[in-house]
Amino acid sequence: MIKYSFYKRVYNYISRQIFRLLFSSKFKYYGEKVSIIAPDIIEGEEYMHLEDGVSIGTKCWLLAHKQDNIEPNLYISQGATIGRFAHIVALRKVLIEENVLMADKVYISDNIHSYEDITKPIKNQPIQFKSEVIIGKNSWIGENVSIVGAKIGANCVIGANSFVNKDIPNYCVAIGTPAKIVKRYDEKTLIWKKTNDKGEFLDEY
């Protein structure tokens, strides 16, 4: 008996090939062995750069939104793997560096909805740029994480269900809402150590 997983692999393969054939030319750059499986919504693909080996799971929503005369830039670097139900929005710049690994249901945005005018529904107010988003190479982003207007360094771990709205430096583990650093790699001793929420090693007190 052929298992369901076999049919799923066949479906995913066919979906990838059809998408590449029909839509890859619409992107600013679409590298070799890029895999986008059955996306939900992709808008502004002319501002998206997908390097070789990028893999994006099912039901993604990718948006590069041009609101004014500044072109948005949604850039996903070589070897990045993004799980299912990803929602990524770039008004100015979202950069995902090499070999980043993301679990399912991750939200990334460099902007927020304006809400200052109480005479208008928030959905009718313009999108407001917050800060560019950069996720450093080799980092791991857990399930249900939201990253809004913040930078994450290289080789970081962001725990599941965290909300990142402030920059996280290289080689850190951060968890919570809002995310706080709980562990950092000590480049002097070459081991990971617990920290306070400022990233200062606890054993130094």
Question: Can you lay out the helices and strands and say which pair or pack?
Answer:
Layout: H1 4-23, E1 29-30, E2 35-36, E3 41-43, E4 48-50, E5 55-56, E6 61-64, E7 73-76, E8 81-82, E9 87-90, E10 93-96, E11 101-102, E12 107-109, E13 111-113, E14 127-129, E15 133-135, E16 140-141, E17 146-148, E18 151-152, E19 157-158, E20 163-164, E21 172-175, E22 180-186, E23 191-194
Q: Would you kindly provide a written description of the structure presented here, covering whatever features stand out?
A:
The protein is globular and about 55 Å long. The strands form 5 sheets. A 6-stranded parallel β-sheet has the order 1-4-7-10-15-18, with no helix packed on it. The chain has a 6-stranded parallel β-sheet with strand order 3-6-9-12-17-20, with no helix packed on it. It has 205 residues and is mainly beta. Helices cover 10% and strands 34% of the residues. It has 1 helix and 23 strands. The protein has one domain: 3 Solenoid (UDP N-Acetylglucosamine Acyltransferase, domain 1), CATH 2.160.10.10.
